[in-house]
Specification:
This protein is mainly alpha-helical. It contains 15 helices and two strands. One of its GO terms (biological process) is DNA-templated transcription.
Length: about 425
């Protein structure tokens, strides 16, 4: 999260206040001009005059509006351009036209050039589907600026091989196909770590992600972990059906966090991740266990996003959000049929999905899928006000700001509202 200095905030506030004061002064000045030209006691000009001299009141008005202020000079120039015609024109029929206050009010000229005209696409380096460049996507913005700079300096488009759009930096060694028609040969089952090493990897995930995201319920997860690694337990059918998939994803995360470097394009933990995704049931059967399914989808989403697989990560988190909404996790979940520990777990899950959905929607430049007005779920209750609770609260507030910027600051067709600076500051 970026921290803005107090001096920068104060400077923005001063500019906004000065701009509002200048606009208010322009409105008052306009009212004076209207009275000057419309009042019966006002000076009566001859229709034959083609080059009228400015009246004293109008001259004083121009001097007052164009006086030096802390506001940006472009605002002053804009006001002068609106007021100058009062002293330099005559109507076609020789009469003085009535000047309305609306015609003198400063209109915003802020435009977002990347949102004008038709939607923007970029040719894909592989496949036949062009890549959509979302307006509010910082990733798409960087690509478009790079292309514009390359065209301006060298007069040509940059080569597609130099533009990594997505899924091109790392190679998982699997294209997602299963069964006899798979285009890639089946991978060997990943070698699982020992119990002690696995605990070390799980703790690494808790340390790096546990403060911001809920990826697994520790009590339930570790109970299954103990059964899985207990040599005296021969029948492991009591394990939850999806637990092993979940376990592989957590181990893949742990390896990724602890790796000090990679050789080639194969990311750390890729073999564990691929094996987990190959064992993951179809969506039709995932809804039977929605709570653990959402946790698994969040794990897979984060891992893919860390490898620059943005589109698959976005699809997975939208799938997780759909399951969460279907089971009412966005509500207060106050019912005698729901145990308290289940409510706590669902709240942790929902806000993790909420944060990931907002961040990935912004990254992709796409609309958010749920409005804040439709959410009544509370943040997980923590009487100790722990660091984890504070971090979650900050992440949720930041996600709301992201949605507010996408929905309110940027106007349709690239037109920015006159309160753009104030909205951005808020």
């Amino acid at each position: 999260m970026c921290l803005t200095s107090n001096s920068f905030i104060n400077n923005l506030e001063a500019k906004v206040a000065s701009y509002e004061e200048t606009a208010s002064r322009s409105e008052r000045a306009t009212s004076s001009v209207d009275q000057h030209y419309q009042s019966p006691e006002g000076p009566q000009r001859s229709h034959e005059v083609t080059e009228p001299n400015p009246s004293d009141n109008t001259q004083e008005l121009l001097e007052a509006v164009t006086a030096p202020t802390p506001a940006d000079s472009s605002v002053q120039i804009e006001l002068v351009e609106h007021l100058v015609p009062l002293t330099s024109f005559t109507a076609a029929d020789g009469t003085e036209p009535v000047i309305s206050s609306r015609s003198l009010s400063p209109e915003p000229r802020l435009m977002n050039p990347f949102a004008l005209g038709a939607s923007a696409y970029a040719p894909a380096s592989r496949g036949d589907v062009p890549v959509y460049l979302g307006t509010s996507s910082n990733w798409a913005f960087g690509r478009r600026v790079l292309v514009m700079s390359h065209e301006q300096i060298l007069g040509s488009m940059p080569g597609q091989e130099s533009l990594f759009f997505q899924s091109e930096i790392y190679d998982l060694g699997w294209d997602g196909t299963r069964g006899p028609f798979a285009s890639t040969p089946p991978m060997e089952p990943a070698t699982l770590p020992t119990a002690d090493h696995a605990i070390y990897l799980i703790n690494a995930v808790k340390f790096h992600c546990g403060q911001m995201f809920h990826l697994f319920d520790e009590e339930t997860f570790m109970r299954c972990f103990a059964i899985f690694h207990d040599p005296t337990v021969i029948d492991k059918s009591s394990l939850m059906p999806l637990w092993f998939v979940h376990y592989l994803l957590i181990l893949a995360f742990g390896k990724a966090f602890l790796a000090r470097g990679t050789r080639g394009r194969r990311p750390p933990g890729a073999e564990l991740f691929v094996q987990a995704m190959q064992l993951l049931p179809d969506t039709t059967f995932l809804c039977v266990r929605p709570v653990q399914t959402i946790e698994i989808l969040c794990c897979a989403c984060l891992y893919l996003q860390s490898l620059d697989y943005r589109s698959p990560a976005y699809i997975l988190i939208r799938q997780a959000l759909g399951i969460a909404l279907e089971h009412g996790m966005h509500t207060d979940m106050q019912s005698q049929h729901i145990p308290e520990h289940h409510v706590r777990r669902c709240r942790n899950i929902f806000w993790t999905v909420y944060i990931l959905d907002r961040q990935l929607s912004s990254l992709m430049g796409l609309p958010t899928s749920i409005r804040d007005e439709d959410i009544s779920a509370e943040l997980p209750y923590d009487p100790l006000k722990s660091q984890k609770a504070m971090a979650l609260d900050i992440q949720v507030k930041l996600s709301r700001v992201i949605a507010k910027i996408a929905n309110n600051v940027y106007g349709p067709e690239g037109r920015l509202d006159v309160r753009y600076v104030a909205n951005t500051k808020d």
